[in-house]
């Protein structure tokens, strides 16, 4: 059902454009679909060597995904924005918006204040509040309550029977688990209301959710305590992009064009124009809000294998982000990350584990997407 909904949404958004290009799925032969999928994956991996075992695995999984159920469907990153002409000129800009040092970043970005409900949840988590208090805080927001219960009843948990109350949800997955889910859902829906149209929102949300799903899977596979912590860290790791596009929409949009036209990784394009990238912006915001270090560090380090190594949540989110990007889910059209062999070794991930994780990632992605954004898709 979710996979069907995903295809309906995708072709509703992009079918007309591809029909004009003569690439409609209805008119392409099976061989043409396979060839198109091969070209897309080849381009996504054009900047890395497939001699590396991890990169080779990511490439193989991406190809299987697009030549299987997604055969003939262009990945989100191929169609996410209208390119700007002459992007090369932006590399030679004599003036740009520098967001350094960090005091300047905080001043120019106009970082939002911590929402009251987030403050309450943070305080309750730190005080190890009772399940009744946690339920009462979440219960003040009917939409948040419904979203948390929907997540608990989603394929992520595969409950044997329906969980119908917050108290029951807390009994099943614990105070911290429910609090973490509520925190992640609330922040993502909060930023949904402030994000500008210059950012390809559907693509952005799906990457965030895919990273969350994969982080949750990795945490469970590696027997990490409270896997919801990793899910939420994955869910929020890219919110610095929302802040950047909200404050500087026109200039931030240039980063998408630079990626598309100059084959430049998105976070590197951000450095060119702002002297920082979305990882620093998100990390600074979460630090200002005194969110858990797992969320702060996952935002800061999810493009930095060396900095992630040895840190529990950043290691998991780094790999989850890699996998989502490799599969073509997100705003990064290019797979350029350091394979981070030491991180994979640290987590003990095997090829068969990774293949198993990817098998139903789309179903869980869409289940979470429709839970958090019930009016979309």
UniProtKB/TrEMBL annotation:
Annotated InterPro entries: HD/PDEase_dom (IPR003607), HDOD (IPR013976), RNase_Y/CdgJ (IPR052340)
SUPFAM superfamilies: HD-domain/PDEase-like (SSF109604)
Organism classification: Bacteria, Pseudomonadati, Thermodesulfobacteriota, Desulfovibrionia, Desulfovibrionales
Domain HDOD: 111-305
Domain of life, per lineage: Bacteria
Gene3D superfamilies, per the entry: Hypothetical protein af1432
Record-given protein name: HDOD domain-containing protein
Pfam family membership, one: HDOD
């Amino acid at each position: 059902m979710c996979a069907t909904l995903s295809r309906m949404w995708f072709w509703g958004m992009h079918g007309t454009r591809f029909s004009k290009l003569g690439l409609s799925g209805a008119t392409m032969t099976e061989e043409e679909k396979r060839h198109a999928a091969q070209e897309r994956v080849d381009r996504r991996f054009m900047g890395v060597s497939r001699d590396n075992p991890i990169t080779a695995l990511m490439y193989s999984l991406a190809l299987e995904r697009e030549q299987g159920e997604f055969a003939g469907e262009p990945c989100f990153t191929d169609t996410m924005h209208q390119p700007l002409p002459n992007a090369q000129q932006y590399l030679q800009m004599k003036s740009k918006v520098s967001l350094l040092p960090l005091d300047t970043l905080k001043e120019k970005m106009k970082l939002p204040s911590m929402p009251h409900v987030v403050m309450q949840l943070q305080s309750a988590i730190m005080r190890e509040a009772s399940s009744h208090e946690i339920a009462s805080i979440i219960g003040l927001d009917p939409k948040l309550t419904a979203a948390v219960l929907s997540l608990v009843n989603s394929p992520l948990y595969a409950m044997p029977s329906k969980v119908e109350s917050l108290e029951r949800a807390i009994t099943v997955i614990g105070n911290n688990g429910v609090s973490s889910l509520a925190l992640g859902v609330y922040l993502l829906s909060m930023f949904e209301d402030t994000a500008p149209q210059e950012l390809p929102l559907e693509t952005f949300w799906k990457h965030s959710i895919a990273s969350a799903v994969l982080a949750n899977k990795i945490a469970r596979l590696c027997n990490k305590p409270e896997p919801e912590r990793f899910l939420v860290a994955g869910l929020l790791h890219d919110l610095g992009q929302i802040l950047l596009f909200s404050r500087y929409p026109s200039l931030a949009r240039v980063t998408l064009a630079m990626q598309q036209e100059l084959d430049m990784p998105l976070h590197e394009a951000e450095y060119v124009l702002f002297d920082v990238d979305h990882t620093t912006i998100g990390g600074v915001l979460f630090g200002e809000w005194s969110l858990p270090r797992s969320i702060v560090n996952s935002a800061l380090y999810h493009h930095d294998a060396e900095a992630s190594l040895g840190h529990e949540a950043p290691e998991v989110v780094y790999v989850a982000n890699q996998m989502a990007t490799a599969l073509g889910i997100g705003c990064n059209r290019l797979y350029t990350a350091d394979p981070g062999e030491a991180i994979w070794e640290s987590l003990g991930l095997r090829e068969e584990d990774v293949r198993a994780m990817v098998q139903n990632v789309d179903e869980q992605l869409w289940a979470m997407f429709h839970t958090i954004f019930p009016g979309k898709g």
